Amino acid sequence: MQKFTYILKHETGIHARPAGMVVNEAKKYTCKITLTLGEKTADAKGLFSVMGLSAKGGDSISVICDGTDELAACDALKALFEAQL
Predict the structure, then answer these.
(1) Is 10 one of the catalytic residues?
(2) Are the CB atoms for 42 and 49 separated by under 8 Å?
(3) Dihedral sign (CA 10, 17, 84, 51)
């Protein structure tokens, strides 16, 4: 299992467009990818699940990748979060 925590920098947080970017990246990997914000969790491969977190700028999100390609998935998502969110 690989994990990282990221504090969202953009005020708008994860709305439709960035959620779509997260989902598209997550779908490239076979491992299970979960996003956690407080008590809420989301499957990173489901658009409505990711948007349901209602993540705003300044929120701290944990990303957990678990499976055969977890390291590659975690690295790619971390790069996406740093570049876009």
Answers:
(1) no
(2) yes
(3) positive
The per-residue pLDDT for range 16-55, each reduced to its tens digit, is: 999 999 999 999 999 999 999 999 999 999 999 999 999 9
Q: Report d(CA 23, CA 77) in Å as an integer.
A: 10
| CB-based contact 31:61 (threshold 8 Å) | no
* 64: CB partners within 8 A, 6+ apart: 1, 2, 3, 33, 34, 35, 36
DSSP 3-state of 57: coil
Q: Which of 3, 9, 10, 15 is catalytic?
A: 15
